[in-house]
Amino acid sequence: MKPIEIAPKIYWVGAVDWNIRDFHGYSTKAGTTYNAYLIVDKTVALIDTVKAPFADEMLERISHVIDPKKIDILISNHTEMDHSGGIPKIMHFIGQDKPLYCSKMGKKNLSMHFGDKYNFHAVEDGETLSLGSRSLTFLETKMLHWPDSMFSYCPEDKILFSSDAFGQHYAGPQRFDDEIGEAIMPHAKTYFANILLLYTPLIEKLLARVTQMGLEFSMILPDHGIMWRQDPGKIVAAYARWSRQEPKNKAVVAYDTMWNSTRIMAESIAEGLGQAGVHALPMHLRANDRSEVITQVMDAGLVVVGSPTLNNGLFPTVSDFLTYMKGLKPKNKIGAAFGSYGWSGEAPKILSSQLDEMGFDQPEAPLKVLYVPGPEAKKQCFEWGEKLGKILVDRLK
User: Fold this and answer.
1) Is the pLDDT of residue 146 over 90?
2) Model pLDDT, residue 360
3) Active site residue 113
4) How many CB atoms lie within 10 A of CB 128?
5) Is 116 a catalytic residue?
6) Distance of alpha carbon 295 from alpha carbon 324, whole angstroms
7) Is 224 a catalytic residue?
8) Is the dihedral of CA 19, 21, 22, 23 positive or negative?
9) Domains of the chain, CATH where assigned
């Protein structure tokens, strides 16, 4: 368990979680990392810790550089427990009287997590702390993605310690962007779609502020996944692009089915969308987890949702997906609802109502089919999809 020297006397001392597969509802099929950073200067600083079960792994890495007891200060950029869970063990080693720097909301959160036994120093937005030959400037990033979140920026090295921003849930053998290349971008996109999509207005303001301040980045070091050293501007540009939520010529047809009737509808609708020149993705909600679907939804211009009617309502997986999507508040979408039924047929109307609540524009009335779609019903679905596709294509001109 060795550290990695990122820059002279700056080390990655985090932990790798190879086996996590669910991160509060977000599928993490490639695992994740909990990144922590050690700066050895006149004042020795540790930036963030790791999830509690991995604290010993972090301490072992630190021990290859210095005796952990020689850490002078701890900085908490984000108090969520995957980054603050290791604080009690670290404070036990270094002494509870050592300063613990955090945002004002961070102090409140950490006190609620661990009590008032630590020597909290709540920093001001823009405050600078000297470590000796280096310094750290703290930038408040409230609600990206918790109220306590902040960045720490080292101007001497132009290194941004970015907390949860610019991260990915990825636990491969690589630690840097130049080691993995373009293969990391789908992980970064999925991370953005499932964690930060709700906060895109705040991200746009933050990026504008960073530009106004003239901050330059030689490296961006997030709290999850790989570190950006070859081309940090690439992930910043991607965040700017994703934050705009510009719709593409793309449709997601998200659905579940009981006896394949809704599946037949979904696939016929997707064919119609394709006929109109739209890239359509039919996504069965038990074959694709919700985090994969929402990643595709993020830049789709059209979201079509289908459900059979079950007990006068929606199929459970469809209801689950709608709740998840509603919380992330995707913007700039055309929406549409469909479904099959046996005798009551409420599902399409319920779907349409929920899409309306999310602010999706619905140019076509919900479509429903009784029992198994025959040739005429499939033709109707195809034509309905084609009509929706033409509407999207026209709006994107």
Assistant:
1) no
2) 98
3) no
4) 12
5) no
6) 12
7) yes
8) positive
9) 4-243 (3.60.15.10), 251-395 (3.40.50.360)
